[in-house]
Amino acid sequence: MKKVMSTVLAAVTLMGCGSASASATASSTSSIPADAGSGIADTATGRLAEIKERGVLTVATEPYWVPCEFIDPSKSGDDQYVGADIELAKYIANKMNVALEIVPLEFSAVLSSVPEGKYDLAISALAYTPERAEAMELSKGYYFTEDDAGYGILTTEDLASKITSAEDLADYTIVTQSGSLQELLVNQDVPAYKEFKRVSSMTDAYLAVQEGKADAAIVARSSAQLYIDNNPGCGLVVQDYKFELGEEYDGMRVGAMKGETDLINFVNDCIDELLGSGQYSKWYDEYTEYAKNLGISEN
User: Fold this and answer.
1) How far apart are the C-alpha atoms of 16 and 260, rounded to whole Å?
2) Does residue 296 sit in helix, strand or coil?
3) For 46, phi and psi rounded to 5 degrees?
4) pLDDT value at position 282?
5) Average pLDDT over the chain, rounded to whole?
6) 45-71 b/e with 16+ CB inside 10 Å = b?
């Protein structure tokens, strides 16, 4: 999954993953919208029935992954969490006819809290991994990169001619987000490296390379390019190299507690509607521009 830039770092004094800690120190609850959906069926079981009874859907997210989920520093309270995934969460809650509670966490806490049953859904630009599929129920994919950007290597302009593939990383320090698909790629597809650093967010990984604390980062290429585009003069470059991944890894997913098939089937129905209308892709494009227009990503 995501799963922001430097002005947001100043605004929330984090720029890593979590709002204030790995626990839900801050959450936002939105009321049921006026055009709420038909709701959860009376025959619902398990977690879905619990959501219906309590009237609130709790969604764990790491709000530092533009344009999916991020913080608008000009807003506060419920309104500060924005992005395409936040719209997805609102859509699902709306269809359930319940209120929505956004719970900002570090990414590792997103991955652990939902399987433990602390929250209902993980919506955080999650990618498929075999480990996640074992730990959680994963929805069908709801967003697929149209340009087949995939996953690759970010490095500095000075090292761009020396680090062009995974094989070139043997003498260099690399970094990526702990618990991410990118970490899996390092473990599986990078033959050797000098040192491997894990950080709590991908923005921390970009900054580590930018500040000379690492030589290269393993990244989602489209998101890394967005960071570079929004930070002119940062001195970073995304290489053309792409890691090879099977089709099962494509698409961002929603996660639920293992065994909660009623809940994930409800989510899949919502995803089918959004894929049919193309609405999620529209949100993705809108929030890409939203982040740029905010000026939150300039150094």
Assistant:
1) 30
2) coil
3) 60, -140
4) 96
5) 87
6) eebbbbbbeeebbbbbbbbbbbbbbbb
Q: What is the pLDDT of residues 226-240, one digit of tens each?
A: 889 888 999 999 999
Cα distances (angstroms) measured from residue 209 to each of 99, 145, 204, 277: 40, 25, 9, 39
Q: Is residue 82 within 8 Å of 290, Cβ to Cβ? A: yes
Predicted model pTM? 0.76
3-state SS of 232-284? Answer: CCCCEEEEEEECCCCHHHCCEEEEEECCCHHHHHHHHHHHHHHHHHCHHHHHH
Tell whether the model's pLDDT for residue 274 goes beyond 60.
yes
- Strands 195-199 and 136-138 turn out to be unpaired
Contact status, residue 60 vs residue 122, Cβ threshold 8 Å:
yes
Number of H helices, E strands in the chain: 10, 13
Please, which pLDDT band fits residue 142 given cuts at 50, 70 and 90?
A: very high
Report how far residue 81's alpha carbon sits from residue 259's, in angstroms, rounded to the nearest whole number: 29
Residue 6: pLDDT band with limits 50, 70, 90: very low
Residue 74 burial by Cβ neighbours in a 10 Å radius (0-12, 13-18, 19+): exposed
For the purposes of burial, counting CB atoms within 10 Å of the CB of 283, is it exposed (0-12), middle (13-18) or buried (19 or more)? buried
**pLDDT score of 150:** 86
- Helix (H) or strand (E) run with residue 126 in it: strand 121-127
In this structure, what token pair is assigned to residue 97?
């006819």
213 phi/psi in degrees, rounded to 5 = -85, -15
Per residue in 156-200, pLDDT (tens digit) is 999 999 999 999 999 999 999 998 899 999 999 999 999 999 998
Placement of tokens 């491997």 in the chain: 196
Beta carbons of 296 and 4 less than 8 angstroms apart: yes
